[in-house]
């Protein structure tokens, strides 16, 4: 039995016995052909990144299956989206964990592209039995080693925290930057570039156009 559990900006998510089926839907405002291509492209991209993440043992869902169209079957992560629990939890500790995990992604040449707290699930790791943050939604992700792309990724995290968690965002973000600074390769340069990026303003469109 497939149950609709979430409707994101891009897709419908169904739960089917511990699997999530992610179906990207048509956007009627896009020309049909372009829309088809874009959906396939993003699904393929997400599948590819999930495979790489499995290989490096990153805390993200496992890809169960991808088909020729735009559907992905991915492991269901049992937990709550971070957006709903961040304020009620230790936001500094969680911020530190976010920074650590973004550093691992970047050290492996992966830019998430949409680092919001709706794209993070706080759930149980079935092996370690500990609660931790899982990253999801790699539809806007791409491979890059560029300092600029990494700095923009961090900037998007800041914007996401600021807009959805106005009370605590700064402490959480600073904790993320602190652990990122310790763990990410070239972090000095990336954090320096981040300052330039901040002074240039909003970057969401630029990173999306990068697809
Ligand atoms: N693997 C998963 N396990 C549990 N819930 C998930 C999983 N993937 C997605 N979800 C839920 O579905 C929502 C939308 O999924 P997401 O991949 O972010 O789609 P979109 O690209 O449409 O934003 C998430 O915010 C989360 O609540
Ligand atoms: Mg999402």
Can you give me a brief rundown of this structure?
By secondary structure, this protein is of the alpha+beta class. Helix content is 46%, strand content 20%. It folds into two domains: 3-75, Phosphorylase Kinase, domain 1; 79-209, Transferase(Phosphotransferase), domain 1, CATH 1.10.510.10.
Give structural notes.
The radius of gyration is 17 Å and the shape is globular. The protein is of the alpha+beta class. The mean pLDDT is 92. It contains seven helices and ten strands. Helix 3 runs parallel beside helix 5, helix 4 runs antiparallel to helix 5 and helix 4 crosses helix 6. The strands form three sheets. It has a five-stranded antiparallel beta sheet, covered by helices on one side. Strands 6-8-9 form a three-stranded antiparallel beta sheet. Strands 7-10 form a two-stranded antiparallel sheet. The longest helix is centred in the N-terminal third of the chain and has 24 residues. Bound molecules: adenosine-5'-diphosphate and magnesium ion. The site of adenosine-5'-diphosphate has 20 residues, from strand 2, strand 3 and strand 5.
Give me some keywords for this one.
about 210 residues, alpha+beta, Phosphorylase Kinase, domain 1, Transferase(Phosphotransferase), domain 1, 2 domains, five-stranded antiparallel β-sheet, globular, binds adenosine-5'-diphosphate, binds magnesium ion
Count the DSSP helices: 7
Q: Would you state the CATH class of the largest domain?
A: Mainly Alpha
Helix-strand topology string: EEEHEEEHHEEEEHHHH
In spatial order, strands of the major sheet run 1-2-3-5-4
* Global structural class: alpha+beta
Kindly report the name of the CATH homologous superfamily of the largest domain. Transferase(Phosphotransferase) domain 1
Percent helix among the residues?
Answer: 40-55%
Task: Provide the gyration radius in Å.
Answer: 17 Å
Mean pLDDT: 92
Determine the N-to-C terminus distance: 34 Å
- The third-level CATH topology of the largest domain is Transferase(Phosphotransferase), domain 1
Bound molecules: adenosine-5'-diphosphate, magnesium ion
Total beta-strand segments:
10
- The CATH architecture name of the largest domain reads Orthogonal Bundle
Q: What's the story with the biggest beta sheet?
A: 5 strands, antiparallel
Strand content: 15-25%
Shape: globular
**How many discrete domains?**
2
Which consecutive residue ranges, at least 5 long each, have pLDDT under 50? none
């Amino acid at each position: 039995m497939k149950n609709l559990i979430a409707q994101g900006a891009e897709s419908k998510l169904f739960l089917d016995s511990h699997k999530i089926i992610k179906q990207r839907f048509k956007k009627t405002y896009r020309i049909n052909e372009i829309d088809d291509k874009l959906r396939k492209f993003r699904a393929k991209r997400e599948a590819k990144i999930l495979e790489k993440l499995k290989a490096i043992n990153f805390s993200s869902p496992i890809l169960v299956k991808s088909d020729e169209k735009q559907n992905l079957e991915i492991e269901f992560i049992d937990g709550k989206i971070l957006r709903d629990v961040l304020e009620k939890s230790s936001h500094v500790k969680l911020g530190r964990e976010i920074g650590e995990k973004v550093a691992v992604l970047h050290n492996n040449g992966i830019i998430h592209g949409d680092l919001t707290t709706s794209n993070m699930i706080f759930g149980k790791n079935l092996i370690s039995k500990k609660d931790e943050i899982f990253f999801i939604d790699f539809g806007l992700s791409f491979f890059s080693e560029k300092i600029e792309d990494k700095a923009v990724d961090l900037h998007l995290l800041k914007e996401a925290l600021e807009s959805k968690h106005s009370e605590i965002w700064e402490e959480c973000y600073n904790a993320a930057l602190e652990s990122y600074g310790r763990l990410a390769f070239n972090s000095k340069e990336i954090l320096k570039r981040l300052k330039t990026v901040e002074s240039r303003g909003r970057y969401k469109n630029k990173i999306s156009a990068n697809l």
